[in-house]
Specification:
Radius of gyration: 21 Å
Shape: globular
Number of helices: 9
Distance between the termini: 52 Å
Number of strands: 2
Strand content: under 5%
Structural class: mainly alpha
Amino acid sequence: LETETKQTVADEASGLRVSGVLDDIAVMGIGCRLPGDTNNVCGLWEVLENGTSLVGEASIQRWDTDAILMMYAKKQQQEAIDRMRYGGFLSDEVIESFRTELFGISHSEAYSMDVGQRLLLETSYDALIDAGLETDKLRGLRVGVYVGASAGNLNAKDEKEVAAMEKDMSV
């Protein structure tokens, strides 16, 4: 990354308007939510340096692996079912926490949002802060947040939860 380009964007974001066109792209900040409560670039770097595995057992709130194993106790299915026991999961705390006041979103609205949307808002904000940018000074600037993400089912609410949520929101 060119230091001049990074400084120019940082100057713009800090309120110092600079004339000219920015042709380069600079990665200035990173935000992440990864398994093992790796939620910042320092933690990510530590995981990479140490070769730490972030694979763990699914929490009981996601699914009860032991109950499923009891249902399918046939030996030939054991290996396939053991594969579902482990994965790279975000902790329940990471999934359930969301700084509603930071984004001006009510608790009921945040609850109805897809978990992926909440995580994206928080990691985008973290990337801007990691870059040393003041978010209130970015309005009107040509600044973008580019995201690398993968699919998942983080928002698996059952029908009763959704019905209760809709009832609460209509009051």
